[in-house]
Amino acid sequence: MIISTDAEKAFDKVQHPFMIKTLTKVGTERTYLNMVKAIYDKPTAGIILNGEKLKAFPLKSGTRQGCPLSPLLFNLVLEVPATATRHTPILIVLKPGAQPVKLRQYSIPREIRQGIQAYLDRLLEHGLLIKRQLPWKTPLLPVKKPGTQDSRPVQDLTAINEATIMLHLSVPNLYTVLGWSPSTVEGFTRWNLKDAFFCLQAAPARCPLFAFEWENPHTGTKEQLTWTRLSQGFKNSPAANLAEFLGQN
């Protein structure tokens, strides 16, 4: 597949808050970051019409034309969608003869659903969840967060795991990995990969596998949602995540 992007008037469409957030995320040195903030912190522009200066108006997007910094800022911002397009969606293979699974949703008290709804709304806003009517359906389980009264949704993907082919990937033994380290090493760093699966996009044709039914506690309406990323609880998520990590590093 070949994708062509039109960058016409691209400099005018760069959102300032997103630009600053991107610069912060890539680790821009504080001095240079503050310089960029000084230039693009609530900038204004004015128009002179027939010799009369009109009221200034705010500029919420765009980089300065002719400024040598503008192409560099644009390239940094463009790298965000470019990085996303370089990630190949994870293909999930069904076992021969596998049929759609429809399991009833467990009853969840309304007060618990209210807390979960805010979490689902954020996922919908960022495209990690989408609304679809699909033939697959597996239930959600509310799991209480330690030390709080809130709950998080955990999907029971047992039936999906049984319907898909296992992705085998050799994971080095921990003691073998430690043996690779130089004798001078005195400390180790542990990475928290709890939410790493959300970085792995599932192939659109296989997103229906992760569908579930949800009753909105505010409206009382029932709808189907599904993940666009690999879900926690899916048996191939750890292997796919490790393969992606090893491929980039």
Automatic annotation (TrEMBL):
Protein name per the record: Reverse transcriptase domain-containing protein
Pfam families from the UniProt entry: RVT_1 (PF00078)
Source species taxonomy: Eukaryota, Metazoa, Chordata, Craniata, Vertebrata
InterPro entries xrefs: DNA/RNA_pol_sf, Rev_trsase/Diguanyl_cyclase, RT_dom
Reverse transcriptase domain ranges (all copies): 2-85
Entry's family note: Belongs to the beta type-B retroviral polymerase family. HERV class-II K(HML-2) pol subfamily.
